[in-house]
Design goal:
The complex is a heterodimer. Chain A contains four helices and six strands. By secondary structure, chain A is α+β, with helices and mostly antiparallel strands. The longest helix of chain A has 19 residues. Chain A starts with a helix and ends in a 14-residue tail after the last strand. The model of chain A has no long low-confidence stretch (mean pLDDT 91). By secondary structure, chain B is α+β, with helices and mostly antiparallel strands. Chain B has two domains: 299 residues, Naphthalene 1,2-dioxygenase Alpha Subunit, Chain A, domain 1; 104 residues, Rieske Iron-sulfur Protein (3-layer Sandwich), CATH 2.102.10.10. Helix content of chain B is 28%, strand content 24%. In chain B, the strands form five sheets. In chain B, strands 13, 14, 15, 16, 17, 18, 19, 20, 22 and 23 form a ten-stranded antiparallel β-sheet that branches. In chain B, helix 2 packs across helix 14. The longest helix of chain B has 17 residues. Chain B is globular and about 75 Å long. The chains are: A alpha+beta, B alpha+beta. At the A-B interface, strand 2 and helix 4 of A face strand 7, strand 14, helix 7, strand 20 and helix 11 of B. Chain B: It is an enzyme of class 1 (oxidoreductase).
Chain lengths: 187, 436
């Protein structure tokens, strides 16, 4: 079985149209704007019912024992987060309580999305795209707190009438020890 | 300028429940902690299940020092400083793995998994065959031992045996390592993150601070779980303070905070645990600290170490502990539940990070903030050393600060003692009063 990583590399030459490239990029830009505008419920509404939103832990391993593909799951392993739509909704509800002190006052975030690479999943009937993109998320909080996170997102986008739904997102955060007091932002 | 011992005792007035904020930020106090506390105390390294096979190793820290922990061919465990004996370079940069030896990538000195120096480049010409390799193995910890799968070590050859160090806390430790016949294991994956604050804030909170839950975690626990327990008066439970500095706080009759898909298993397991341990400690959820920096959330599968990284920084290394013989769907449910609530992104834990980090900022920049004496008076004078069932000093409710006072009492003894601080007044016969 080929991994998601390998499929994506193969698919670079697979003929995704300029129009699709444009549509997907515009979707990703609008999506992160919702996060930066603190419109978390609207962002949540972009998720498909079968959503999986996950961030594996990044490992420091010897080259000969390192994981070729840190996106893939290997058994039951602790992630940084691993949500379905129901548990992601819990996170959104937490923000709506008015008692979520870690985000009150809210953090200022800026999500920069780039390097958007699109491929068609082999088993797809044409309405799904595998999309890899790179991100930098800048967080500035209260007076002087700054966090800067870089990484990559592996998305499965599914076309629907209004545009796309996010059916899967795996976030590769480029940190082993998370260099922040918390991850109270979305990626 | 050395730390003045009388001054330190004034700052840590555990008897009156007043602790000076200065001990959470002072550089000299921190350096003394590395020497007298982390250089002496039994520190948690790993659980057996993290390094099951010969050659399995992991990197961790004892205080500020990097330590390699490795499974030996005979099944034993060794731990030694991850620092080459030639120039002190790190001999292994991987966080875990399996190996036959560690080669320092500076000059090539190579050690086997027992820490013995086995190869030195140019030994015969440059060293003229005169280097005594047996003298230059990696620096071993002074003592290493396990308690029911929990591996601890100390740098101090004069430290008492591990079981004596853990003392009456083993009665409560058993509630989360020995509640089922098959024992526990740690899921792969360590969630590691960084707080700009002092490690003691986190350690004392896990020892005894149930009081913060209603307020700090108002948006998560109170929303997700049984709201009556997390918004009203002190929930029915208890607090244990050990004379040896350990603490445990438990809420009764609350097998799990969350519907996590493992409810049937939990119900069944609870009965097994009660049969094995009795209801007093089995039927609880809560929080604990094994002095000084091992903590966890029994009932929520969580175990963690607070690694100090300076007076105003620490890392949290957090694991998920599951019953070894539990079905995979139960382990997966516990993984998902832990990921949702604990860890850097956990809905509960993100609010702890906000507290601890801001407290650190106030002390970093301030002067008046450092002069404050913080209030640790909750429950003072309302504890008993003679509970009819439970060993240790017991507060008969979940809210209180007895475990914190016990933590700082012991901390002060470590900090002000020239030698290992033996507790002459500790009751070694504590186990006689409990039904084991």
């Amino acid at each position: 079985m080929t991994t998601q990583l390998e499929r994506s590399v193969e698919a670079v030459a697979s003929g995704v149209t300029v129009e699709v490239q444009h549509e997907v990029e515009q979707f990703l830009y609008r999506e992160v704007q919702l996060l930066d505008d603190w419109r978390y419920r609207d962002w949540f509404d972009l998720m498909a019912d079968d959503l999986r939103y996950r961030a594996p832990i990044r490992k420091n391993r010897l080259r000969r024992q390192r994981l070729e593909d840190e996106v893939a799951e290997r058994g039951i392993e602790m992630p940084l987060f691993d949500d379905d739509k129901e548990s992601l909704n819990v996170r959104i509800m937490q923000r709506e309580t008015g008692k979520f002190w870690a985000e009150d006052p809210p953090s200022r975030t800026r999500h920069l999305i780039s390097n958007v690479r699109i491929s068609l999943p082999t088993e797809s009937d044409g309405d799904e795209y595998e999309v890899r993109s790179n991100f930098i998320v800048y967080r500035n909080r209260l007076e002087t707190e700054v966090d800067l996170w870089a990484g990559e997102r592996f998305d499965l986008l599914r076309r629907d009438r209004a545009g796309f739904k996010i059916a899967r997102r795996t976030v590769l955060l480029d940190q082993n020890v998370v260099l922040a007091k918390n991850l109270s932002v979305f990626f | 300028m050395a730390v003045d011992m009388n001054d330190l005792a004034t700052k840590v007035d555990w008897e009156r429940g007043e602790i000076s904020a200065d001990i959470f930020i002072d550089e000299e106090v921190y350096r003394l902690e590395l020497d007298r506390l982390f250089g002496r105390a039994w520190l948690f390294l790993a659980h057996d299940s993290m390094i099951p096979k010969p050659g399995d190793f992991l990197n961790t820290y004892m205080g500020g020092d990097p330590v390699l922990v490795a499974r030996q061919r005979d099944g034993g465990v060794k731990a030694y400083l991850n620092a080459c004996r030639h120039r002190g370079m790190k001999v292994c940069r991987a966080e875990d793995g399996n190996t036959k030896h560690f080669m320092c990538t500076y000059h090539g000195w190579t050690y086997d998994i027992a820490g013995n120096l086995v190869n030195v480049p140019n030994e015969n010409d440059a060293y003229h065959g005169e280097l005594d390799k047996a003298e230059f193995g990696l620096k071993q910890v002074a003592q290493i031992d396990t308690y029911k799968g929990l591996i601890f070590a100390t740098f101090d050859p004069d430290a008492p045996p591990l079981l004596e160090y853990l003392g009456d806390s083993v009665y409560y430790i058993d509630a989360w390592v020995d509640h089922v016949p098959g024992g526990v294991e740690v899921l792969p994956g360590v969630v590691k993150w960084t707080i700009h604050g002092n490690w003691k804030i986190a350690a004392e909170q896990f020892a005894g601070d149930g009081y913060h839950v209603n307020v700090t975690h108002m948006s998560s626990l109170a929303q997700i779980s049984n709201t009556e327990l997390y918004t009203g008066p002190s929930p029915p439970g208890f607090q244990f303070s050990s004379r040896l500095g350990h603490g445990y706080s438990g809420i009764y009759n609350q097998p799990s905070r969350f519907e996590d898909g493992a409810a049937d298993y939990r119900t069944e397991r609870m009965q097994t645990a009660i049969d094995r341990l009795g209801p007093e400690r089995a039927n609880t959820v809560g929080n604990f600290t094994v002095f000084p920096n091992l903590s966890g959330l029994p009932g929520q599968s969580n175990l963690r170490v607070w690694h100090p990284k300076g007076p105003n920084a620490f890392q949290i290394w957090s694991w998920t502990l599951v019953d070894k013989d539990a079905p995979d769907e139960v382990k997966r449910a516990q993984m998902l539940s832990s990921a949702l609530t604990e860890g850097a992104a956990g809905t509960v834990e993100v609010d702890d990070g906000e507290n601890w980090d801001l407290m650190g900022q106030l002390l970093q920049d301030g002067h008046q903030t450092r002069l404050l004496k913080w209030n640790y008076k909750m429950g003072l004078g309302h504890e008993t050393d003679d509970h009819d069932k439970l060993p240790g000093r017991i507060n008969d409710m979940y809210f209180g600060e007895g475990p914190q006072r016990a933590f700082y009492r012991r901390w002060l003894e470590f900090m002000t003692s020239e030698k290992w601080p033996h507790c002459d007044d500790f009751d070694d016969d504590w186990s006689k009063k409990v039904n084991r």
